Amino acid sequence: MERRHFIRALAAGSAATALPATAATAADGSEARSQLATLAQKMSEPVLTNLAAGTLKKNFALEVSPTWDGRDKGVAYLECFGRLIAGIAPWLALPDDGTSEGHTRKRLHQLALQSYTNSVDPSNPDYLLWKGPGQTLVDSAYFTNALMRAPQALWEPLDAKTKQRIIAEIKALRRIEPPYINWMLFSAMNEAWLMSIGEEFDPLRMNVAIRKINEWYVGDGWIKDGDAFHFDYYNAYVMHPMLVEILDVLDAKKGAFWNGKPEELRAQAIKRMQRYSEHLERFIGSDGSYPPIGRSLTYRTTAFQPLALLAWRKKLPQSLPEGQIRAALQAVHKAVWSAPSNFTKDGYLTIGFVGHQPELGDWYSNNGSMYIASASLLPLGLAPTDSYWTAPAQDWTQKKAFAGARFPKDYPVNY
């Protein structure tokens, strides 16, 4: 699909005004960034505009999967905001500039700050479901992950009352006992965030989660989800990114970890995420398609969060050059997001994989859940002049392989 058609597809049916496209002669990286920024704005505009005005619950029409388990649907609003903000936080944290993208980013940043304020204000119509079911713990972790990813942009500017309210709501979620699956990382993320801002935290909730994830490591970059191995994308959705970011804080704050060194655990976790990312890169077909496998398939491009996170942090392994990953992810985004029915006529995400496919939803799926897809937008946190955007585009593995070109063979690792 040509770039102009991709931009047009993103803009179709949206209340947001698409960012201006770059000229057709622009460098590959400039085009890729323009497409990603347009997608970020399209995802963000309806959510942040309404939450900042206290009208999200009024205007965000909920959609749940056909197998919905009957829990309080109000959790969808926390899912929507928490997941969205975690992915766009690095982008909102970039310095202001005079570009069209910069003006849009600055406006969305201010809306995000007001959204944080409204989300914990009991008198606001959009006060989120902090006293809700266990799902609240899950999405609180994305809410705090965003504050960890962009503390100067999203935490420090908040007023003292809002900060106190956020801290209180997060600590109150200790009432929810996470099952021994990926959920342990949600508790740990909240405690890591509290640790990062100098608040009282529970080291046991962090350290037990770290231990369990390492116990569940099965090798070659793959982690079980509890006692069972699942062939799905939860290693990308939760396991690798959250483990690394929790260990970032534990290492930076020199936290205690019995009979272990946080800096060594962190280095190991990064290597394992890099290895898993090599597998993800090989999943990407010549046309940007990838295997539609496992639970939560409707999280769409979140499947590539590890690649996006490593790119943003400048930690891609040597085997995955920046120009290759940028080109591969650009193809993935085109393959998924060109379908207009990914969004409602009001600009909100729908349940589906490529377009509106509600039958693919799981028993816990609602359209707020879909905003975890913003995790594939993390490279927008790199300045337009960064080498990720300026490096020459390169073909990715499957594109080379099916063109009969040379490509490296793949072997398992033992770390």
Sequence-ordered SSE layout with sheet pairings:
Layout: H1 3-11, H2 28-53, H3 56-59, H4 75-92, H5 100-119, H6 135-149, H7 151-155, H8 160-172, H9 184-196, H10 203-215, E1 217-219, E2 222-223, H11 234-252, H12 262-283, H13 305-312, H14 322-337, H15 387-390, H16 397-401
Antiparallel strand pairs: 1-2
Helix pairs in contact: 1-2, 2-4, 2-5, 2-14, 4-5, 4-6, 6-9, 9-10, 9-11, 11-12
- CA-atom Rg in angstroms: 20 Å
Helix content: 40-55%
Derived structural class? mainly alpha
CATH topology: Glycosyltransferase
What is the residue-mean pLDDT, rounded to a whole number? Answer: 94
Characteristic key phrases:
415 residues; mainly alpha; Glycosyltransferase; two-stranded antiparallel ribbon; 16 helices; 1% strand
